Amino acid sequence: MHLSSTILALLTTISLIAATPQYYGHRLPFVYEFDKVIEVKAVPLEVRNGTTPVPGEPGAYGLFNFGLNIAEDTICFNITLFGVSGAYKSPALTATHIHEAARGASGPPRLAFPNPVGDDHRRVSAGCLKGPFLTGVKNMTTGIDTGEGFTIKKLAMGIEGFFADTHTEAFPVGAVRGQLDGGSC
Ligand SMILES: *[C@@H]1O[C@H](CO)[C@@H](O)[C@H](O)[C@H]1NC(C)=O
Ligand SMILES: *[C@@H]1O[C@H](CO)[C@@H](O)[C@H](O)[C@H]1NC(C)=O
Ligand SMILES: *[C@@H]1O[C@H](CO)[C@@H](O)[C@H](O)[C@H]1NC(C)=O
Q: What are the φ and ψ backbone dihedral angles of 44, each rounded to 5 degrees?
């Protein structure tokens, strides 16, 4: 009895560890109190390698909906990808990001989101992430993770300087991309 409950507890612990995703922020249940709500339509023609246009997946698009709560350092996301096919690919913890760069330029990921799940027609990822954040990508000069020290306040203070995208094996620099400048409060 005692032994079997110990074993059960141990097994439960092991399966919890196995189920824990790589850390990119604290996963939270959905909350709905936001300082800023941002709706982004991501398309293949916005994808850049540096500043060179490298079109993403033809016919694909993504709806990236974000809610920012500055005091809680929390971002909620509801990401739907249409027509993004095949496996994800990125050197980061996930292949679905907010990067810091102006429209037409490229820059480091600041937030990594769980990749949308589904088929080649429609994939979805929704939830919330609370800082501190990690992307799994290190700045080559400083060796520091590009998500370290990033806050939702920094994002909220200059949303037009950020874009959202997702990367796949066939479109490693981006299958779809959209600038976060259509925000409304
Ligand atoms: C992106 O640009 C780099 C540097 O110019 C180049 O080595 C790489 O092949 C390019 N990648 C794609 C997918 O265009
Ligand atoms: C995510 O957005 C879709 C429509 O784009 C909506 O049907 C769904 O309810 C949303 N999910 C959440 C958790 O808000
Ligand atoms: C790496 O960090 C340095 C120092 O903070 C910064 O100037 C540079 O832009 C960063 N590089 C990238 C690719 O973000």
A: -65, -35
Residue nearest to atom 5 of ligand 2 (CA): 80
Using one digit for the tens of pLDDT, what is the confidence trace for 70-93?
Answer: 999 999 999 999 999 999 999 999
The Cα–Cα gap between 76 and 78 comes to: 7
Ligand positioned closest to the Cα atom of 169: 1
Structure tokens at 45: 């023609």
Please name each of the domains of the chain with its CATH number: 22-179 (2.60.40)
CA distance 178 to 30: 23
Around ligand 3, the residues with Cβ closer than 6 Å are 108, 139, 141-142
Q: Which of 95, 124, 123 is nearest to 109 (CA)?
A: 95
